[in-house]
Amino acid sequence: MRSMTGYGQASWQGEGVKISVEIRSVNQRFLEARLNLPREYASAEPQWRQVVQEAVARGKVEVTVGRSGLVGSDFTVEVNEPLARAYVEAWRRLQATLDLGGTIDMQAILARPELVRVVERRGEPSEELERVEQVLRQALESFGRAREKEGRALGRDMLRRVTHLAQLVRQLRKRVVAAAPEAAARLRQRVESIAAGVNVTAERLAQEVAVIASRGDVTEELVRLESHLVAMRETFQAGSEPVGKRLDFLLQEVHREVNTVASKSNDLGITNLTLEARGEIEKLREQVQNVE
């Protein structure tokens, strides 16, 4: 089991450049991957997005790729020599024409932005893109380990709550059995009061009581509840496979069965047990929103 929230990072440094990748995510129903890349890496975005999608199934994932040059090794100064020569020749002509003295002010010429510029040295683009993808995959591994660690903690707590729910279902079974005679007596009194003054045989009265009692029987709901809880336990053993959607579906079914049990019963003990079960289900539903 993996959490949808996590953080991972990796970096590489060499050949006058440093590359770093950071990945962070928050929970979301579907996968949304956002890549923040330097402009020179834009062409590789579809390929790297596919790499992310292969590693992550759900969540809002933000990937930030950084690139920086190392001081003194990644930059060079370029001079526009033809333009500089034209400036010098123009100055000399002006000197000759106007009979001016003095020397050429090199500082003024070099201050012209069109004459001198600092440029970043680049290696082979394909090789650098391959290096970035390697760092991206390393960051995804770190990201995956962080999500698995948080997922294990989530799984332990959720399993504890599922175990508690199973205990509540067993208590419900016992309470249903214990409350059956009293419920049947109340039901018989109700039917007899309704049928008062009407010529009804004892056999017909017993049949009516049986029909009404069957409507309040929760045996099937308790069986399905136990089945869903077993399925949830099995899902926790799925390793790193995405299980969030399945757990969410099973919890919906558990919630539906508990609500049905509560609506069918007039017994205070059963009502209290279903209220406790609803509390655990609500906590589980909050947690499963963070499961991939």
Could you walk me through the main structural features you see in this protein, from its secondary elements to its overall organization?
The chain starts with 5 loop residues before the first strand and ends with a helix. The mean pLDDT is 84. The protein has helices spanning 45-55, 81-98, 106-110, 125-194, 202-215, 219-236, 244-264, 268-288, and strands at residues 6-14, 17-26, 31-36, 59-69, 75-79, 116-120. Helix 6 (219-236) packs antiparallel against helix 7. The chain is α+β, with helices and mostly antiparallel strands and 292 residues long. It contains eight helices and six strands; from the N terminus they run E-E-E-H-E-E-H-H-E-H-H-H-H-H. The strands form two sheets. Strands 1-2-4-3 form a four-stranded mixed beta sheet. A two-stranded antiparallel ribbon has the order 5-6. It has three domains: 6-71 and 127-143, Ribosomal Protein S5, domain 2, CATH 3.30.230.70; 75-120, no CATH class; 148-288.
Radius of gyration: 37 Å
Strand order of the largest sheet: 1-2-4-3
| Count of strand segments | 6
- Largest sheet report: 4 strands, mixed
Average predicted local confidence, pLDDT? 84
Helix content: 55-70%
Strand content: 15-25%
In total, the number of domains comes to 3
User: Would you list the SSEs in sequence order as H and E?
Assistant: EEEHEEHHEHHHHH
> What structural class do you assign from the helix and strand content?
alpha+beta
Low-pLDDT stretches: none
Please report the number of helical segments: 8
